[in-house]
Amino acid sequence: MTRRRVLTVLFLGAALCVALLFAVVIRETSVGGEPNGDVPLRRLAADARIDVGTAVRGPALRDYPGYRAELAREFSTVTPENAMKWDAIEPVRGRLRWTDADALVRFARANDQLVRGHTLVWHNQLPRWLTGREWSAEALGRVLRDHIRTVMGRYRGRVAEWDVLNELTADSGKGLRTSLWSDVLGEDLAPKALRWAREADPDAELYWNEIAADGLSRKSDEFYRRVKALVADGVPLDGVGFQAHFNLDGVPKGFEANLRRFADLGLDVRITELDVALEVPADDAARKAQADIYAQVARACLRVPRCAGITVWGFTDRFSWIPASQPGAGEATLLDRGLDPKPAYRAFAEALRAGSVARSTAADATPSP
Ligand code: G3I
Questions:
Q1: pLDDT digits (tens, 9 = 90+) for 243-260
Q2: Which domains does the chain possess?
Q3: Contact, 164 vs 122, CB < 8 A?
């Protein structure tokens, strides 16, 4: 072999190595083989002046390949799906378990993400020691106050917002949902819990997060009436969350008008648990209809100036609460089981992109004070 040939072979070999290295780096930093889009959701959302978040499942964050990279790349907000619920933190009275909650808070800090704490007053996922006995109003009030102080105190300055109240409104639209809390504490429940929360972390934003009160309905009217009364009474409340667990029935009537009427009370509003369940296995038409619903939700939020962000309830079909709780339904999230984007991802991203243009134009046109 001539010297020139040797050099050519060496050069080609080196070029091949560099190309291979490049391919590996790209594969590691994107997930599921390909990056989902040119621009991550969190960047599109930031341009549109909102947050985009997801619920995070503790075990997935621990060791599912690709999950952490995707979570860091796409989302500016994280909500623990279960790790901050009472049964997770204190399954045995006085014995506190923080492992998953701490891990998420650390992850968020490392990736410049805001944490939405979820949740302090809820009728579900309560430990047996709490539900399995009778309480006086005084004793239960003390237990709840201590819980709020302990959990919010631990994450003071690190969890920016809390769903202090979760799903308190009765589905019938008449009064409070029947639960341990409302049975024992009655009408004092919401104002007391919110005041204890404010004391526990004066800088955290305090939310009432509600389920199935997304459109205009008897239930959302009751929710609105209660929130309005709290604001009028000077009870500390900064925002209201609309969970938005949807299916192909679509976005409920009056969704945007509902967001607006709460915002008009001087509160922030957020979409806190968005997903769109399909019958499984889903076909292309269903996936397309799902994509449209994700886009409609994004557009509605972006049209309401006090809409602070959208959180999806899980970002991959591999980790979603739907199949376990609604047999025959699933495929409700933005990415498939292999973490590849679905039409819903692309439609959602596109709606954010369009919204960023509209919102920045509106902001530019607003005269400075
Ligand atoms: O903790 C036990 C574990 O010890 C056991 O080994 C395992 C075996 O199945 O179950 C574990 O509990 C499960 C828990 O999630 C934690 O993984 C429960 O069975 C399961 O029912 C529970 O589901 C959660 C559900 O809330 C409970 O109501 C979902 O993951 C979670 O996505 C869902 O989230 C709620 C929001 O917090 C509030 N809004 C509605 C939303 C959907 O229901």
A1: 999 999 999 999 999 999
A2: 3-364 (3.20.20.80)
A3: no
